[in-house]
Amino acid sequence: MAEFSSEEIAYFGFTGPIEPGGVGRLAGALNSAVNNGVRNVHLAFSSSGGYVADGVYLYNHIRALPLHLVIYNTGSVSSIAVSVFLAAQQRFCSAHAMFMIHPTTMGQSDGLTARRLQSTLDAALADDDRTDNILRERSHIPEDVLAARRHSEIYIPPVRAVEYGLVDEVREFSLPEGHQIIQV
């Protein structure tokens, strides 16, 4: 991992699923920045989502770090990745970006007993509640949109993302000349 001085801003890029490997790499990069005295991080971010547990972990981890995170949706931020995105203090998206929220999905249910199926359903509903709580705390998505996301995919274009408080404004990510970016 690169060494940073306390005067630097760190620039990272992440594209991929919210799963243990990717979450570990991203958390590790942010930890390294903090451990080296960096207090401002810019993150170009795109993810189709992944596991709710990993996303909630990363959301909480980012919120706990003593750094100012500026995040940019540079493609698509979907599913639990929206919650991760909302952990940042400043949020922007490209004019061509998209957000998507939807209900928690369950894996294959072949061969499950009724009790096991009920347990899986209860876990998915609990994950929906956790995600809704983050969306409510960190954005202004209307309640009717949150209710609709419990039943179908909801696509949120940049203008609506500003209106809903997902982003501060539509702004392209641009690496300043002379700086380095690390893809994690």
Question: Which key terms come to mind for this protein?
Answer:
8 strands, globular, 2-enoyl-CoA Hydratase, Chain A, domain 1, 6 helices, 8-stranded mixed sheet, 184 residues
Strand fraction band?
A: 15-25%
Alpha plus pi helix count:
6
Structural class: alpha/beta
Structural Rg: 17 Å
Could you give a short account of the major beta sheet? 8 strands, mixed
**Unreliable runs, pLDDT <50, ≥5 residues?**
none
Q: How would you name the CATH homologous superfamily of the domain at 9-100 and 155-183?
A: 2-enoyl-CoA Hydratase, Chain A, domain 1
CATH class of the domain at 9-100 and 155-183: Alpha Beta
- The counted number of beta strands is 8
CATH architecture of the domain at 9-100 and 155-183: Alpha-Beta Complex
